[in-house]
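Feature request disguised as a bug: please show the residue count (136) next to STAS domain-containing protein in the output. Example input:
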Amino acid sequence: MFAAHGEWRILIVDSIVFIQPFGAFNREGVLEFQYDVTNQVMAVPAGTLHRVVTDLRFFELSTADSQSVVQEYFEGVKQRGYERIDYIGANALSRQLLEGLWSGTQMQVVFHDSLEAFLAHCPECQEQLPWLAGND
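Example output, currently without the count:
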């Protein structure tokens, strides 16, 4: 069944924000997601967060009506001063779109084909495996 609003989970550990979107997102879903992320990030002292890990293994798509809101979300992320963003499981189309969104920024953007590849490259995140695997 197509659920247009999408679902997500957010975990903040030390200086890292972990995000898992699930399903498909329309404009309203992206706005709700953006509101939730902003509220959770703003609850953390400024300058504390330096990295975002986004697990796209269960993300399906964002609809055409959400594109302007997605662009606004990425502009906000750029303003927060993160140093690095990791993407897990981005398909070829998502990767191309994300590379375009981050081009011209100082953000270090790293793509990992799988959860296993991410953990091999980022062993400091091993403790979050149960959350990333949905076994929290």
